[in-house]
Amino acid sequence: MRNTRRNPLQANWLHRFFLASATAVLLQICPTASIGVPGSNCYALDNSGHIYDFSSWIGQPFEYEGKDSDLVVRFCKDVESRSQTGYLDFGRFDKVNYFVAGSGHVNFVQEFYNGDLINCEHSYDKMGRTAKVNIICGSCPKGECKGGLGCICNVTYESACRVLVELAIPCEKQGLRVFEGFTVGFHPRSWELVYNGMTQLGFEKSHHEFSFKTEQSQVALYMTAIASLSNLVQKPTVKVSPELGLEVSLSGSGATGSQPTTLSPTILMVAWRCEEARDTPYEVEITVPVVGYDPIQFTLTKMCGKS
């Protein structure tokens, strides 16, 4: 009888072959898009890593009529209580991103700090009045409001210095899935190109002011990832526009598919040779496929001037 048992090494090779083939076909069929960092800090990643950009909601007011005072949330701006005796500031949306994924029926959480100090000088590490806004994508649990721009479902004062707000809104369309913790920089511990899986301003598309000069023949890029997820990072590919005139090759540990970690970054060497001079720069688009996530993509801009 013929032995039909598959050699484990052969099975592993076939698995890697089909995975690589599927990735290549997918990249050809589905156009990739750079996951650029949003233009404001009014964005969040949900529990599955998909990005939601709420930049267009900044300052949108939501008012709640309470027994003793009205509370107003200005989205990604501030929270304040309004009464006949005046306004009380319950915190502002800080430059540091206090916009994170929630749990249970709460989709996202916004924290507001450094509100008014009066009678709250020692609360929350001397940050004064603070507010926590639990955001629900959709309607309030008890149907307090439906449709439109949403509303505040409930307000609870933990103390005179701390307020909890439940806000229901029609959330923005789910964005691409971000490979959190992934960085690309010009040095082993930097992230000028990609930070936390998002392409930074200046490298999300071609920018003349960020271009590499004619005489620079190569550039070294350092890639890092969370160690437990580093095996998901695949071999990068490169696309040059226009196709003719600039010869580009990739080498180094980052080009061979080695697993990048924060302790051991991989190096992606990008070597280029100008074959045809142009008045406008060449676009060198590098794509790093990541299994289960939208690919990492960034653009280097290369000048080829006349000698």
From TrEMBL:
Q: Which domain of life is it from?
A: Eukaryota
What is the protein named?
Uncharacterized protein
